[in-house]
Amino acid sequence: MKIIEIYKGIKIVVPYPCICIDDILIVSDTHLGLEEQRERLGISIPVSLTDTIIKQIIEPANLLKCKRVILLGDVKHEFGRPNEEEWFSVKKLINSLREIGAEPEVVRGNHDNYIISILKSMSVKLHDPYLSIDELFFVHGHIDLEDKFGNAKYIFMGHEHPAVSIKDDLNIKHRFKSFLVGEIRGRIIIILPAVSPLAYGNPVNEIDKSELLSPFLRKYGVDEFTPYLIEVGETVKEFPKIKYLQA
Amino acid sequence: MLEYEEAILERLDPVVKEWFVSRFNGFTPPQKSSIINILNCNSVLVASPTGSGKTLSAFLAIINNLVRFARDNTLEDKVYCIYISPLRSLNNDIAKNLKVPLEELGRMHDAIKKIRIGIRTGDTTQQERAKMLRKPPHILITTPESIAIILCAPKFRELLRDVRWIIVDEIHELCSSKRGVHLSLSLERLENLANNKIVRIGLSATIHPLDEVAKYLVGYDNNKERSCYIVDTRFVKPMMLKTISPVSDLIHTSSERVNKRLYKLLKNIIENNTTTLIFTNTRSGTERVVYHLSKMNIVDADQLAAHHSSLSRDNRLDVENRLKEGKMRAVVTSTSLELGIDIGSIDVVAQIGSPKSIARCLQRVGRSGHSIDRESRGYLIALERDDLVEDVVICMNAMKGRIDKIYIPKNALDVLAQHIVGMAVEQRWKVSEAYSLIKRSYCYKDLSIDELRRVIKYLSGGYGLNEHKVYGKIWYDEANDEFGKRGYMARVIYATNIGTIPDEVSIKVYTANNKWVGNIEEEFLERLSKGDIFVLGGKTYQFVSAKGFKAVVKDAEGKKPTIPNWFSEMLPLSFDLGEAIGKIRGDIFKMLNDGYKENDIISLLVTEAYLDTNAAKALISYIKTEADFLKMLNVDAFPDNYNIVVENYIDEEKKQNIIFHAVFGRRVNDALARAYAEVAKRISKRNVIINVSDHAFMITITDGKLEPLEIINGVNQYNIRELLLSAIRYTEMVKRRFRHCASRSLMILRNYKGHEVTVARQQTNAEILIKLCEQLDRFPVLEETYREVMEDLMDINTAISILKDIEEKRRRFVILQKFDLPSPFSHDLIVAGYSDIVLMHDKKELLEVLHEMVISRIKNRDEDN
């Protein structure tokens, strides 16, 4: 395991799609059960992704002895009211975290509706619509909460599922998930990639800012952001700002 | 040539006999052998050219039996005969051609009017299908897809229990693709359903080897071939073939001049004949030729037309009808008029470029002289040097009756998956029983039970590791080793997703002034960025923009492509033909080397090889320039079917290009090129570009200083499979084929719960799915993807036998010294632009490399400003 410290005390835990601050681990967009939704649409994913996703959170939490794990929304990929059976993956995630002494908390995302009662029944803290701890501000990102940022210095967001695509000198495109780190009006904005292997967003270096998913980012664009490209399980690599990566 | 055969007439019902004698002067050669065999309940494969009475050679015996039943009043409401062809238009044709004799027979005897013919395809309405249930056709005319659906239709399948005859038309077209693999299992399922042994009748054009196609038709019983009688009348029709070159030197003549002479040639041919059929190899080529011919005003505008699969159905039907009525003077087509639909009388066929295989050449030229005693006439017109050699060799072999081998895919697991779901819908199966049914098909004779079990495991959701909830399309009981259907959706999923032809969203490509230039696939569009240059239909374009299903480009003639076209519409050269080309190259080289005069070789070629003087001159000058080049380097070997000459060419950009001259056809060369590139990649730790044609292949390393010998020695018959597999992983080609295989395996459905699955399919990233499947133990969909790419798209098996040849000294490498010029034989290859790239797989390394590139690009940009 390698650490990339993007700002003092704010660390990317290589090669995981996670950020760590002291004993807090931050992850976003796990979309547990996304494969079930695909199945209902006629696409079979032959592998269960639950274990893969849990591993990506448990491993760094364990290594860094994290006490708190903040899930930045879209924990479960909800599509209508899930039945009892479909809560299996969510329960498994929560229990696995507690087993290693890390307490999960959820910041509500746009997919988190029915999950609320399950969280309640398992006494998992839910922050709706955001969580703020001193100068840290955690939000999913599907609604613009800039007016709530207050004195926060660091804003952590998910929702965007950022990806970056890079062309090699033979003109072949390679797409990677990415963290995005940038400054907007004096605050540091940190956008996390989706943990779910199936959730890839549009490459942010190829689209217009109006096509970004998060309304807050749509206002400013991400041209000045620095991407940290990630191949989960293998590596993370800092690249020049998005504005230099446009085709 | 025609005469009656008493032995056959004797066996016919008196009415049928009377009708036949009143209508025909005798039996054609295929009819003489096939009718008696079918009457004797033997399966038959008839290989015969168009216009030799193939339809009746299959149907006369069947009609005879049905007439007898009708007259004896034993004709029941069930299907007796199933006719299957790959084309709906052919189905309509056959129906028409059967209705006429049945009506004539009906006028002679009332009872015969009871015999019904019915067509069932994807176009058949619900209403018509319901009607068919009440009054089933005695002769059912259908397609491979529809027959597979009918097998699972609870009521209709009951009407098939007494089927006695199955006719598979255009069997050569079917058996060489997954469609044919699919059909082979349907035939076995049908045989399994039927109460009695079914007589199978295959109708084929001129192909080789007939005994393999016969085995494909009839299949196996307990690992033993079922019997099949082969009627080989492939060469009954006289044929005239000739290779022409528009100019005497194809190397130094400008393409404008070659084109000008080409159209003059075509003008001559059209004017001297009543109806001319012109084949080009691509749709865009067809459009171009029609455009130029129409500008020349040789014939009236309505006497000239294009016919290809991108045109609307009405449009095509109109052209076909006018052809039949004898109203056309010239029709230009890509491949769509190759198959046996009745197009009336054609005097001559002109083929522009190479038809790439002898069988295809015979099939195309065979469209002319549409009756058995009329000569087929064909001109092969070469516009490029490689085309010329191909055309010459095709002519020589075709005239001697030598035909290249057909390839029949085997053990396709995706097609198998579809049938397993279909079988599960029918009934509950013991795995061992299903296995023995499947093995009766020629295409699955060697399937291992493990492979079948893995397909069943996949379909029953058994790969969903650690998951307590199982999604499966079938149900599998491990204890009893049985499988069956799961849930009410299985039947619908099967019926609405069946088939093997991948449906791709195509993007129409226009120039800025709204001229349509062709189609590209959605996946290809995804790869394009503004400014990229790519090849479409043989021309080069620069990508400008895209919106929805439309892309805009501008002309970029003469510029080098920046994006390879992975999905080439080019037909690959057959291996057998390639070997013959290698041989003739060597023969001519030897003659030149032995001091024969050019004029003597020319007159020898003109008399022996069916080509005109221009073509002979062009051929010799092509070979002579290569020979001169080699002489300059003091090499006395020549690239032929023994020597694989290897160039080590360093270009102006200091890139190293290792060029292999091997006329093995693109399928073999692709496999070899990627294996050598993989070795080069491992040694150099860089991405390697490959460039593949039918006649040669090239691997390019930027700033390479590799020893060709080291790369050559890195590949052998034992490690090529592993090298190739590693080279194709995560390529665009594999991702695309994976989507197709996943779709055929019903992993990604096209239709579900009554609607098309589009958005979710688009969002499903093939690369991610592949990575997930790689975690599983020999996951059938992924295994099939690699098999399809290596065995069907490429030809790894022949590549292996070539490496064996080299190891056993039946072929050898001749490595040239490092040089800063490519040899003349390499020019076409270099101009064509690259085909693909063998990439670094290690994502860590890849990210480092990409990072470096980005940094240097930014630097350059800053310096420019």
Question: Any descriptors?
Answer:
heterodimer, A: 247 residues, alpha/beta, Purple Acid Phosphatase, chain A, domain 2, eight-stranded mixed sheet, seven-stranded mixed sheet, 5 helices, 19% helix, 30% strand, B: 865 residues, Rossmann fold, Arc Repressor Mutant, subunit A, 5 domains, seven-stranded parallel sheet, six-stranded parallel sheet, 31 strands, 45% helix
Short account of what is shown:
By secondary structure, chain A is an alpha/beta fold.
How would you classify the quaternary structure? heterodimer
Gross morphology of chain A is: globular
CATH third-level topology of chain A: Purple Acid Phosphatase, chain A, domain 2
- CATH fold annotation of the largest domain in chain B: Rossmann fold
Number of strands of chain A: 15
Strand content of chain A: 25-35%
Radius of gyration of chain B: 28 Å
Count of individual helical segments of chain A: 5
- By DSSP, the count of extended strands of chain B is 31
Note the topology.
The complex is a heterodimer of chains A (247) and B (865).
Chain A: E1 2-7, E2 10-14, E3 19-21, E4 24-27, H1 34-40, H2 50-63, E5 68-71, H3 88-99, E6 103-107, H4 115-121, E7 125-127, E8 130-133, E9 136-139, E10 154-157, E11 163-167, E12 173-184, E13 187-191, H5 215-220, E14 226-231, E15 235-238
Helix pairs in contact in A: 2-3
Chain B: H1 6-11, H2 14-23, H3 29-39, E1 44-47, H4 54-72, E2 81-84, H5 88-108, E3 117-120, H6 126-134, E4 139-142, H7 144-150, E5 165-168, H8 171-175, H9 178-193, E6 199-204, H10 210-218, E7 220-221, E8 224-225, E9 229-232, E10 239-244, H11 255-271, E11 276-279, H12 283-295, E12 304-307, H13 313-324, E13 330-333, E14 348-352, H14 358-365, E15 376-381, H15 385-399, H16 413-426, E16 429-430, H17 431-438, H18 449-459, E17 474-477, E18 482-485, H19 489-497, E19 506-511, E20 516-521, H20 522-527, E21 533-536, E22 539-547, E23 550-555, H21 575-593, H22 598-608, H23 613-632, E24 643-650, E25 656-661, H24 666-684, E26 688-692, E27 696-701, H25 708-713, H26 720-728, H27 732-744, E28 751-752, E29 755-756, H28 759-763, H29 766-774, H30 780-793, H31 796-807, E30 812-819, H32 827-831, E31 836-838, H33 843-864
Parallel strand pairs in B: 1-6, 1-9, 2-4, 2-5, 3-4, 5-6, 10-15, 11-13, 11-14, 12-13, 14-15, 19-23, 24-30
Antiparallel strand pairs in B: 7-8, 16-18, 17-18, 19-20, 21-22, 22-23, 24-25, 25-27, 26-27, 26-31, 28-29
Helix pairs in contact in B: 3-4, 7-9, 9-16, 14-15, 15-21, 16-18, 16-19, 16-27, 21-23, 22-23, 24-26, 24-31, 27-30
